[in-house]
Amino acid sequence: MEQKDELAHFRNELTRKLKDKRNFLIESDLAVVIKADFPKAQFHFRVVAKDENRDLTQLTADHLPLLDHMMELANEIIERQTHVESRHFRIGFKVHSSWNHLNLHVVSDDFYSMYMKRERHWNGFNTELFLPLQLAHTLLNLHGSIDPISDEKYSELQLQLPMNCNQCDFSTHLMLDLKAHLFSHWQRTSLIIACPQADQEVLVFVPMAIT
């Protein structure tokens, strides 16, 4: 009984957040944009639908206007981020969600974060467990539904090894090695700021905290 109560509490987390407007970065009649509590990259947001459509498998073609609107909000929050170009963001859904509100992830592709700790965290965004919004839109438009993933396939993808870097051909079985490698990518893509007192450019590492 206690375990069921904990699961229900977890699933209701987004419902609780929707009751407090202080969490909202952007709000519309249909959805809100909030920060991810445990960001898996330097920029990680969630577009949360106000209606209780728990996951992708409950959607039909009638929900296409909602997806279009959520995409508009995703683009709006991306435009507010001055340190990262829009092409470095991924927009999509987790195919096996425990939340009781449909929520769209808007995440920068650096995946450099203290909360990127386990294989399942990486695989959740870099395997078939992550469904790009455009693909979800196409499936609903053509077939009117999105098939659920089996529990067996879900467990397999969560633990899939090796983990392949999303930015080059690096591959590893160790999360610590992947994190160090991702950090090296993040360093190279940090901002280059021209030094006003010298005829040279100075490399400045700017922490890309969520704003």
Shape: globular
Strands side by side in the biggest sheet:
1-2-3-5-4-6
Mean pLDDT: 86
Largest sheet: 6 strands, antiparallel
| Oligomeric state | single chain
Q: What would you report as the Rg, rounded to the nearest angstrom? A: 19 Å
How many β-strand runs?
10
**End-to-end distance, in Å?**
39 Å
Strand content: 15-25%
The assigned structural class equals alpha+beta
Helix percentage: 25-40%
- How many helical elements? 7
List segments where confidence is low: pLDDT < 50 over at least 5 consecutive residues.
191-211
Tell me the series of helices and strands, N- to C-terminal: HHEEEHEEHEHHEEHEE
Give a description of the structure.
- With 211 residues, this protein is α+β, with helices and mostly antiparallel strands.
- A six-stranded antiparallel β-sheet has the order 1-2-3-5-4-6. A two-stranded antiparallel ribbon has the order 7-8. A two-stranded antiparallel sheet has the order 9-10.
- Helix 3 runs antiparallel to helix 5.
- The chain is globular.
